[in-house]
Amino acid sequence: MTAPAGFAEHGFLRGMPAESVALLAGTAAAVSFPAGRPLFDEGAPARNCWLLTAGQVALFLRAPGTEDLIVETLGRDDVIGFSWLSPPHEWQFSAETIEATEAFELDGATVMALCDHHPDLGFQLTLRMLGAAVRRLQATRIRLLDLYGTPGPRAGTR
């Protein structure tokens, strides 16, 4: 399989050894989505991830009786879709395109099989996914502070 044009230049892959990028490139497919298209829903089976190249995607939580809570808006050079990495392999959030979006789609099972045979690739992906998860947690923290304000003094302090 030939790598889609521009795959190796994606920001998520920056600094990854060429051998690892080449392995992933063989599994990547260029995809396009119109605005307003759901990518996945919380609780559904998680099988893919996407390296975004254009457009915007809202990552959100569905809250019964209230509006959806947007956790983060993702765009060019972001990655979306971590839930295929660990059991129970179900989406922890929901995601929908805000505008027409282009991405490289990776099949989780195929990538996991590659990582089993190429531990260096697995290490490189783990570093990058962990970095993206930390940024996502920080964005969630900031969003929560915006919603609830800064916390008061800690218990036991004056």
Per DSSP, the total helix count is: 3
CATH architecture group name:
Sandwich
CATH superfamily: Jelly Rolls
Give the overall pLDDT as a whole number: 90
Kindly provide the name of the CATH class: Mainly Beta
**Named CATH topology:** Jelly Rolls
Residue runs with pLDDT of under 50 for 5 or more positions:
none
Q: Work out the radius of gyration.
A: 17 Å
Written description of the protein model:
The protein is an alpha+beta fold and 158 residues long. It has one domain: Jelly Rolls, CATH 2.60.120.10. The chain contains three helices and eight strands, in the order H-E-E-E-E-E-E-E-E-H-H. The strands form two sheets. Strands 1-8-3-6 form a four-stranded antiparallel β-sheet. The chain has a four-stranded antiparallel β-sheet with strand order 2-7-4-5. It is globular and about 50 Å long. The termini are far apart. The mean pLDDT is 90.
